[in-house]
Amino acid sequence: PGDSEAGEMGLAAVPGRQAVFREGLEAAVRYARAVGCPRIHVMAGRVPLGTDRAAVAGEMETIFIENLRYAADLLSQEDMIGLLEPINNRITDPRYYLNTPHQAAAILEKVGRPNLKLQLDLFHCQIMDGNLSQNLETYFPLIGHIQIAQVPGRHEPDSPGELNFPYIFELLESLGYTGYVGCEYAPKGDTLEGLGWLRSYWESRGLQHGGTSKAAK
């Protein structure tokens, strides 16, 4: 993530921070290796203060692509995957460089490395673009990880909001998604009580707590 106290939120696309990015990536790989995690979120970073986004967009994309190719080579040695997550710049972070799955997909195509994937957080995607069904179908071949939170409160999936998560989960299953779904939300209260939505969802699908089939028992 870079230096959060200095206002950084990743470095992969930030001009003049290439060397620090690579040091941070190597440290992240060591941590990932230690805990057995095969995926690392390669954070793009923020548009520098005092600069116009459009004016630096080309330079930042060039730096991002160069750093991503370096990251892909390093991660391939560890059999790891790098993830690019678009973060909305309407609510969450106005200066974040990578904002939409369309932008991420275009950069992934230019980088051209199979061990770099899209980390699609449906909270950010809904705020920036909506059209979740088509976006999931269009970008499914690129997706390496899914994250969820209700919009606009960023709480549990069954909290009041815009997204129909039972439908989204069934769509992911129909597309053949077999990866994890990260609960990237802020619980409204107690964390364990807030997981009641998951127990209810499992029961609605005829599953025991933990996702095992009742029929199999």
From TrEMBL:
<protein>
    <recommendedName>
        <fullName>Putative hydroxypyruvate isomerase</fullName>
        <ecNumber>5.3.1.22</ecNumber>
    </recommendedName>
</protein>
<comment type="similarity">
    <text>Belongs to the hyi family.</text>
</comment>
<dbReference type="Pfam" id="PF01261">
    <property type="entry name" value="AP_endonuc_2"/>
</dbReference>
<comment type="function">
    <text>Catalyzes the reversible isomerization between hydroxypyruvate and 2-hydroxy-3-oxopropanoate (also termed tartronate semialdehyde).</text>
</comment>
<dbReference type="InterPro" id="IPR026040">
    <property type="entry name" value="HyI-like"/>
</dbReference>
<dbReference type="GO" id="GO:0046487">
    <property type="term" value="P:glyoxylate metabolic process"/>
</dbReference>
<dbReference type="InterPro" id="IPR036237">
    <property type="entry name" value="Xyl_isomerase-like_sf"/>
</dbReference>
<feature type="domain" description="Xylose isomerase-like TIM barrel">
    <location>
        <begin position="10"/>
        <end position="200"/>
    </location>
</feature>
<feature type="active site" description="Proton donor/acceptor">
    <location>
        <position position="85"/>
    </location>
</feature>
<dbReference type="InterPro" id="IPR050417">
    <property type="entry name" value="Sugar_Epim/Isomerase"/>
</dbReference>
<feature type="active site" description="Proton donor/acceptor">
    <location>
        <position position="184"/>
    </location>
</feature>
<dbReference type="GO" id="GO:0008903">
    <property type="term" value="F:hydroxypyruvate isomerase activity"/>
</dbReference>
<dbReference type="InterPro" id="IPR013022">
    <property type="entry name" value="Xyl_isomerase-like_TIM-brl"/>
</dbReference>
<keyword id="KW-0413">Isomerase</keyword>
